[in-house]
Write a structure and sequence with these properties.
It contains 10 helices and 10 strands. It is of the alpha/beta class. The strands form 2 sheets. A 6-stranded mixed beta sheet has the order 6-7-8-3-9-10, sandwiched between helices. Strands 2-1-4-5 form a 4-stranded antiparallel beta sheet, covered by helices on one side. β7, α7 and β8 form a beta-alpha-beta unit. It is globular, with a radius of gyration of 19 Å.
Length: 264
Amino acid sequence: MLSINNIEVVYDSVILVLRGVSLEVKEGSITTLLGANGAGKTTTLKAISGVLYTERGAVTKGSITLQGRRVDRMRAFDVTRLGISQVFEGRRVFEHLTAEENLIAGAHLQRDARKVKSAIERVYAYFPLLRDRRNQLSGYLSGGEQQMLAIGRALMSNPKVILLDEPSLGLAPMLVEEIFAIVRRLVAEERLAVLLVEQNATMALAVADHGYVMENGRIVLEGGVGLLRENSDIREFYLGLNAVGTRKSYRDVKHYKRRKRWLS
């Protein structure tokens, strides 16, 4: 469905952020992209969605394709029109609009009012709580409700691919589980492709089908989530488990050092 082929991303014509990144996201699956802060995960999502160009960034090498069609040279609204929607970190709902008005804003490419209404009902079917909050200002919704609204708004453009950036940020564990359960249902029923960026590696590896690990703008490891969960480096640096499976204390850890064999 979505293919990133050896891309490089440069900001302000001088700052190299991504270096030869390649990954694939398949239809009807969740692919997760793991990595520390500053690794380049969000930049990867912005390169896909076209938002990168609003921040003086550019894909200078490689290509990004959606079902074989190149999108890395398109403007953001053209990328959305083709079927890629991004849910940004921090939710970013329009706080001065009601929940339903936020959904309508997500359908700005759709000119048929009947199809917009049908899309809203589709969102309410997946997120019944939003129906109850439809006339409430979004700024007064809880964090979990805003995250549901942000995902629902992304659905309004009838996407083929959804880019999820840190959906668990600031949410209680039970809410995170509920939201990810809905995402899994969306993927199964709508045959969506989801690229998930998530700091909560345990949750990401629990819901995803395939994973990539990014470090310093490069992909250093990839594989099925079962293999990644058993990888000693993933267990130590992302799941906080030592060799015998117990939780590791990071109080005495001063530096994170990548295993050299990751680059082999």
